[in-house]
Amino acid sequence: MKNKTALLLCFCFCAARAAAQIAADNIRLNQIGFYPAAPKIAVLVGTDSGAFYLADARTRKKVYTGRLSETRTNVISKKKTRIADFSAFQKPGKYILMIPDAGASYPFLIEPNVHRAAATGAVKGFYYQRASTALPEKYAGKWARPEGHPDDSVLIHPSAATEKRPAGTVISSPRGWYDAGDYNKYVVNSGITMGTLFSLYEDFPDYVKGLPTNIPESGNGVPDLLNEALWNLRWMLTMQDPDDGGVYHKLTNAAFDPMVMPEQARKPRYVVQKNTIAALDFAAVVAQAARIFKGFPKETPGLADSCLTAAVKAWKWAEANPDDRYRQNDMNGRFEPKITTGGYEDGAGADEWIWAASELYITTREDTYYQAVQLLPDTLFRLPSWNQVALLGYYSLLRQEKTLTALGKKDLPALKQKILAFSDRLLQGVDQQAFNTVMGRSAKDFIWGSSAVAANEGIALIQAFRISGSKKYLRGALSNIDYLLGRNATGYSFLTGFGARTPMHIHHRPSEADGVADPVPGLLSGGTNPGQQDKCSGYPTKIADESYLDAVCAYASNEIAINWNAPLVYLLAAMEALQKNLVP
Ligand code: G3I
Ligand code: 9MR
Questions:
Q1: Element containing residue 41 per DSSP (H, E)
Q2: Nearest ligand, CA of residue 559?
Q3: pTM over cut 0.85
């Protein structure tokens, strides 16, 4: 009898718990929280209607009542949603959102600086990606690990051989960040990553200076974001062939490592084929670095000058070799060992020319760089991604308005118009969209690394805000933060360690191999991608905005990568810096 009662009690309790759990999953919201004066929206996936209310998370006392919106139909999945808008409630605290019949949301905060911890965490994510160094517990907590990949004896691959550096020559190319869930280091992908982080510093220097991340360099007089970027910059500089200025495509194993810790991955490492795209991305990054580190002459003696020299050399190499493309298959037809790691093959170089020319022009103030390429009109005007970098150059030109020569200044009005028009297109239809986010207005948003689409859209909108002062852009950017942190069709907050329901099984070798249950924190999962190129079994659906799987095998939706983390860092930190402007 006693047992029976216990069983019954457990049955009721467990069923109630399960119901609450399911309900929480149907209420989609930013799982971290909201700024007091900003828009605050949750989305109910399903058909309940009527009232919703907010309750204090601890006392469960009702603090606000509202009504769900009319039903919306998700254009991608055709599923129904309703919006719970509680923007009017502004009192700081910790709350849950209740929908009678549907249940309770995860708890969330309303407070100033609500994304500061996530911003700091996402910067710290880069520290965990460092190659060639141990991560002591003092900085890495339970994710401490021994040094991996010293990269002090790297081989020149036959595809990169020259007279002075024949195949098999040993070079030293330490430091840098692991690209993603793999342990290789790719110049092209480092390009956009570094450009985005540097731009955050240039756009919001004061905010960045106040964002310490507890890394070994903390307190050395250089902001930690830049300290972190220096780890990768010093590696990048070693990827330039000192003899001719060309830049190797990547530093890599011949094949991907198994899922082991860095220190157990000891296969030979190679630098492979120089090419135009790598040279231009490199030139852009180190040209930008040159002007940034000019501001830290004591802390980084000589660095700014070396960067500028390196940038000019890479640019000249690209001018002399404008059509060299990295084609892994072709390369493997001609050289051994065959290289099967990430390709980052980009056939079209117009955008890299624009970016490199812009950065070199800004840093040197020499019109010749500006005249060397047709900067405008860029008919493509594509959202930034590892193979689309023109907008990085445009953002820089806009930011540097005051220091440009007359030649560059004359194009700025047209450039501003273009960015505003681009951002207006992003905002179109958002108010009718099922989740009320800029991200996900079209199924085309969901590609490999779609989380970075959301983040880069957010950056474009922040640029539009900076140009125009119009708050609609800032709110649009915030809607994509909400998307990334939970207000989306999967119900996940895609940033590891931040939110109630976050990825636990990212495709990330250290997270898989370290024996620690929690994944390394501060890493952005690639996110929803109906491509399912990993052929992993277990995807819940092929529906574009729901095709996400929190499993290690699902590298096409659940890997992490530096070029996805960087725009998230930008977006979160920029929003923190601009939060006062969210007041209606
Ligand atoms: O270029 C076509 C475009 O024309 C077409 O409209 C579009 C339709 O989906 O596809 C475009 O190609 C895509 C390409 O990325 C460029 O965006 C491919 O489908 C897609 O498979 C490809 O995915 C890349 C993936 O590597 C496979 O190559 C990701 O962008 C890239 O982030 C990812 O990078 C890997 C590295 O290789 C290795 N390290 C991990 C890293 C992250 O997964
Ligand atoms: O781990 C690799 C990941 O970093 C890449 O993004 C992905 C696509 O290139 O490939 C992963 O490696 C897989 C390989 O492509 C196929 N065999 C299984 C590997 C994962 O364990």
A1: strand 41-45
A2: 1
A3: yes
